[in-house]
Amino acid sequence: MKLDSKYFDKIRVRPARSGAAEPERTPVCAWDGCQEPGSHKAPRGRDHEGQYLHFCVDHVRLYNKSYNYFSGLGDDDIQKYLKDSLTGHRPTWTMGSNNSGGAMPSQKPSGRPRRWNGARPRDSFNLFGEGEAAPPPPRRKARTLEVKALTTLGLAENAGGEAIRVRYKALVKQYHPDANGGDRGSEDRLAEVIQAYKLLKASGFC
């Protein structure tokens, strides 16, 4: 194939230019009475996005100082514009709506709808606040260390969480040095009580 063929020239990524490119002409400054070259672009303003005015360096500084995109808008319109800018000025719809109040129309449901038999849904944990809450699951049997911790607190193996907390607070007040006039003779007993309570709390007993 001839490298200077007109067909070869058409499939070039960058076709050869026939002549030298003309230099770009710099527009005249758009400021009234100024004949300097307008080498600096400045936005025209609201409702003219993508359009620019050309100023010289001195007049573009003056233009930028007085430029206000929201010029002519009221406070309500400005607040609405700022709110819409959070979503990129794209339309939004109310969540959980089904083609009501301007909501986005939902897709056509597929399959046959289920019938409601009137039975109340199960709410084992009373999340909706109706009816009585289900009783808590039975506590597992205490292991050796847990039995020892309960004995340290002076409680039976089947003691509940509230009983453990009440007993722990009472023993801390009893053996704390501040309750004994600064006497530290009960510090070892206090440490045993605290360790036993931490063990029971970590095991889920209180």
TrEMBL record:
Region of interest (Disordered), residue spans:
90-141
Q: Which segments constitute the J domain?
A: 148-205
Question: Can you tell me where the transmembrane regions are?
Answer: none
**Matches recorded under CDD domains:** DnaJ
- Matches recorded under Gene3D superfamilies: DnaJ domain
Domain of life of the source = Bacteria
Output the PROSITE patterns linked to this UniProt entry. Answer: DNAJ_2
Output the InterPro entries linked to this UniProt entry.
DnaJ_domain (IPR001623), J_dom_sf (IPR036869)
Annotated protein name in UniProt: Molecular chaperone DnaJ
Q: Which organism is it from?
A: Aureimonas flava
